[in-house]
Amino acid sequence: MGRIVVLALGGNALTHQGQAGTHEQLVANAEGMARSVSSLMLAGWEVVLVHGNGPQVGNLALQNSGACSPWPCGKCSGPGRRRSSPW
């Protein structure tokens, strides 16, 4: 098995600092991201693309100051998301 990289791709990854997030900017940034992913694949990496989860997840991580959550990832939900786990 080759090297594997997991890339989280979401709105924050597609809008650069100082940009308004216009359609043209998003398309240009997505094209740049696609070129980067293609380069990784051509270099022999196996690439897994996942949704980026937006700023909420990053903000929660900062609030926790790097402390580990007592809940496994599949057992908890971020704010604004309905909890679907029966646990």
Please describe the biggest sheet, giving its number of strands, its sense, and whether it closes into a barrel.
2 strands, parallel
User: Biggest sheet: strands side by side, in what order?
Assistant: 1-2
Radius of gyration using CA atoms only: 16 Å
As a percent range, the share of strand residues is: 5-15%
Mean pLDDT: 74
Structural class by SSE content? alpha+beta
* Number of strand elements: 2
Q: What order do the helices and strands follow?
A: EHHEH
Helix residue percentage? 25-40%
Count the DSSP helices.
Answer: 3
User: Kindly, what is the distance between the CA atoms of the first and last residues, rounded to a whole number of angstroms?
Assistant: 34 Å
What does this molecule look like?
There is one protein chain. The chain is of the alpha+beta class. It has a domain at 1-53. The chain is 39% helix and 14% strand. The protein is built from three helices and two strands; from the N terminus they run E-H-H-E-H. It has helices at 11-14, 23-42, 54-63, and strands spanning 4-9, 46-51. The chain has a two-stranded parallel sheet. The longest helix has 20 residues, at 23-42. The protein is flat.
